[in-house]
Amino acid sequence: MVLSEAEALARLEALRRQRDAIERQIADLLLYLDLGRRLGGPAAPAQPSPDARADAPIPVPEPTLQPAQAPSAAPPAPPAPPSAALERPPVPAFAVPVEGEVGLSETVLARRYGRALIEAVLAVLEEAGRPMHASEILARISEQGFSLPGQDPVAALNTRLWKRSGPGGPLKRLGEAVYAPADAEEA
Q: How confident is the model over 149-161, as pLDDT tens digits?
C-alpha cells in the first residue's frame, strides 16, 4: 500500500490526536490514583474482568482514510472514551482556555485553576478582615464555584494553603488550619 503525501499527513495527524487523547487519559488516571492514595488510604486492588489479560495490549482503533479523501477535508472527530468512567467533572469558566489558547494542556489548566483558587482565598480573607479556618474559607469559595477533590475537601484545601504559606508565599499559617494574608501579620 502506497500512500500519497496528503494521505500520510492526514493519517499522521489522526495518530497524533489519538496519542494526545491517550496521554491525557493516562495523566488523569495517574492523578486520580495519586490523590486517592493520599486522601483515601490504601485502596483495594482492582479485580480485572475474567476475559481481560494483564499482558494484552489495549486495542487502539486505526483511522481509515479513503483514497479519494481531499487533504482540505475536516479532520475526523477523535474517538469517544471507551467508558463513562473516564469522563471529567465540569471545568469552571475561569479554567477554560480563552480564544487563542485552545491547545493548553491539562497541567496548565490545573495550575491556572490552582492560582484562581488561591486568589479567591486571598479575596475571602481580605473581605473578612481576620484570619479564618480552612473550613470557613472552603464554605465561602464553594459559593463562588470552586471545588476540591477527595473525601475531605477541607483537608485538601488546608494542604494547598499550607504549601502556599511558606516564606515568600501569599499566606501566613497562624495555627492549625488557620490562615491570613501574608501582609496582614507583618503590618
A: 888 999 999 999 9
Distance, in Å, from the CA atom of 185 to the CA atom of 187, rounded to the nearest integer, reads: 6
Residues whose CB falls within 8 Å of the CB of residue 35, separated by 6 or more in sequence, listed in order: 149, 150
Residues 172, 181 contacting (CB under 8 angstroms): yes
Integer Cα distance of 21 and 33 in angstroms: 18
Any bridge partners for residue 118, and if so which? none
Q: What is the mean pLDDT of the chain?
A: 74
Which of 134-144 are b and which e, b meaning 16 or more Cβ less than 10 Å from the residue's Cβ?
Answer: bebbbebbeee
pLDDT digits (tens, 9 = 90+) for 61-101: 554 444 444 444 545 555 554 444 444 444 455 454 455 55
